[in-house]
Amino acid sequence: MTIVLIVLIIAVLFVGLPVAFAVGLVSGAWIIWINHFPLLTVAQRIYFSVNSFPLVALPLFVIIGFLAERTGALPDMVRWLQMLLGHVRGGMAYINVLSSMLLAGISGTATADIASLGRLEIQMMRRAGYSLSYSASLTAASSMLGPIIPPSVVMIVYALSVGNVSISGLFLAGLVPGFLMAAGMAVMCWFKARGEPGIEVVTRPKAGELLHQTFRVVPILILPIIIVGGATSGVFTVTESAAVGVIYVLLVGLFGGRLKAADLYESVIYSAKISSVAGMLLAAGDLLSYIFSINMVTNALAEFMTQVAGGPIVFLLVTGGILVVIGMFMDAMPIIVALAPLLAPIAARYGIPDFQFAMVFLISSLVGLVTPPVGMVLFITSSVGKLPVEKLSVAILPFVLWMLAVVVIMAVAPQVTTFVPRLLGY
Description:
The chain is mainly α. It has helices at residues 2-15, 19-33, 39-50, 57-70, 73-85, 91-104, 110-127, 132-142, 153-162, 167-173, 175-195, 207-233, 238-255, 261-294, 297-309, 312-327, 332-349, 354-366, 376-385, 389-395, 397-412, 415-423.
């Protein structure tokens, strides 16, 4: 019967209905007419799935990223990094990676990185002598640090979907994989710079100019410390840290004379559009998870995976591989709300730490953002950089392979994801 349910959802998706509506309508109808529960059950499941204080953090993080971009602080940050590293051979490529790491601590999404800094990063690398394909591929790949280095929107959605995972702990679990991924990209940039004779550097700035620019970017550099530090230290909850972050960005923008009242209004409207999608997906995913629960699908799948996968490492690798393939055709958010509640209990039966499985699940799902045929980041970068998707897909392949290597490392070595959370008591 479960196969029939999945086939119905896929059929409705092919008709053209959005994922949230397809999953929600089919699951709701299934609960009422197949499982014979009253309509009130569907309404209650939807209400309680989104009646969550941590969920409020989602629109707040989106507002933070929007306002930070409107303040002009992000281009200032790139110019500051250019002053620090522009005189180093390959410095423009390093700046691309570092700016994505810093922006990851503000926005929490890959698309925000591309939309905010993509064009600037590509132009900067082109002026330094890099090819368009390499500039665009590195920009797309480094944007993947956004949802991995905290704060992360997908981590919040994962925690809410699974229900028993600490959001702050997930933030900490993403630190080492995020820095590991960034380090690998930086190493590839180093080899590229050594193999390209035409790479140019800029003149080292005067001390006074560097000091002046440093003072300009200090406020925006403090923001990730407030958000991540406040949430993981226990000073704030995740939602409270996001709210404090919004107030901080507002104060920085208003006192700097760069924000207007219209910017705040636009940020709220933009955030509502983005967050409503996540809310609808969570509600629809909860209905689907409820069907799996009452029909004992998790138990049946657990027995099947035990026979097929064997040990925990094989289970993680098989799961990661399946998620990478699914991610090529579906966005990460619906994958999380549909499959995380189903697979997380199975991982627990294998004795896999929650944070290890969460990071393997999330990064495997996110790889699809930079792979054809429907990779959102791939298409946005192609548009921003004016490079055909076909060429970009080939150029980004080394970076995709490194992302997959990080997934394998996490599957084999749980300490990569569990060391920092355990060190801080999670």
